Amino acid sequence: MSSNIDGKDSVLAARATGTTWRDSLLRYYSLAKPGVLYGNVLTAAAGFLFASPGRIDWFLFLAVCLGTTLVIGSACVLNNVLDRDIDTLMARTRKRATVTGGIGARNAVIYSAALGVGGMAILVAWTNVLVVAVGVAGFLAYVVLYGMFSKRMSIHGTLVGSVSGAAPILGGYVGASNAIDARALIAFLMLFFWQLPAFYSISIYRREEYARANVPVVSVVRGVANTKVQILVYTGVFVFVSLLPQVFGSTGWVYTAVMGALGAGWLVLAASGLKYDDDEKWARRMFRYALVMMCAISLMLAIGPRLP
Fold first, then answer.
1. What is the pLDDT of residue 13?
2. Which of 15, 17, 82, 248 has the most CB atoms around its CB within 10 Å?
3. pTM of this structure
């Protein structure tokens, strides 16, 4: 999952230009895209707790979260290596250590492999086959299908990236339940559809950068007006999916009331974009609201089954 949270990671990378051991650690830390990493792990934890309405196996919870963290970190590091040519052309990424030379490509690949092997070892040793399968699939979807191909070649790259971005919540869910059922599908689709208005909004206010880097995002290929319509449609689909847990008996009215109110607010904001003149300002507001929604999703899925 790639987002404007990367901007915070770029700041970390920019500060990590010294030669002390602390500077080196900071460079490697920033290379794992901590903003993206923590957001994904938050949803993995939410998925686990959503699937554990009764007793929580805390050891299993820690194993799922730690293993997932390392695997996602591995994918993020490898993605940085693959994106060096693009990152040099974008203001928010040109300070990354793989671009400035703070970390060489060889060392970055070794670092990625160490994270990936460590994460998969934890998942294999202490979780279940479904978690391992989701972890492998999510890694390949992000690094290969998204990073190597669709991001550079297709307007539908965000759709492919959204599959990998929704993998952590599915991994968390199957980690607790050891099953793929309707609730697992709802959780996956919720995060999948959340990403589309979020990242299409980024594509609007970063449109010039994507165009300069020759990345065929929807706002560059089809224009801002078309992107706004798609944002509205996908926001509506997200709101619909986010209200399904109570229909399937997974949560109560508190969850539905909170998510319904927040979803309605996001939908109104999305609709206002059709007539809003300052596209960049509106898109930034949409993305900030998306971050609020991600936190709400994670919190309400975690506690929703335990509330009226």
1. 46
2. 82
3. 0.91
Q: List pLDDT tens digits, range 168-187.
A: 999 999 999 999 999 999 99
Structure-block tokens of residue 154? 């297709």
Residues whose CB is less than 8 angstroms from the CB of residue 117 and which lie 6 or more positions away in sequence, other chains included? none
Phi, psi of 292 (to 5 degrees): -60, -40
Q: For the chain, how are helix, strand and coil distributed in percent, rounded to 5?
A: 80, 0, 20
Range 6-306 classified under CATH 1.25.40: no
Which of 206, 216, 270, 207 is closest to 238 using CA atoms? 270
List phi, psi (to 5°) of 269: -65, -40
Cα–Cα distance between 147 and 167 in angstroms, integer?
Answer: 16
Q: How far apart are CA 304 and CA 255, in angstroms?
A: 5
Q: How far, CA to CA in Å, does 11 sit from each of 14, 22, 92, 289, 292?
A: 5, 16, 9, 22, 22
Query: Residue ranges of the domains in the chain?
Result: 6-306
- The DSSP line for 291-302 is HHHHHHHHHHHH
Q: For 119-134, give one letter per residue: b (16+ CB within 10 A) or e.
A: bbebbeebbbebbbeb
- The residue-averaged pLDDT of 209-228 equals 96
What kind and span of H or E run contains 136? Answer: helix 129-140
Question: Which long-range CB contacts under 8 A does 254-258 form with residues at least 24 apart?
Answer: 254/304, 254/307, 254/308, 255/300, 255/301, 255/304, 255/307, 258/296, 258/300
Contact (Cβ atoms closer than 8 angstroms) between residue 207 and residue 218: no
Polymer length in residues for the chain = 308
pLDDT band at 114 (very low <50, low <70, confident <90, very high): very high
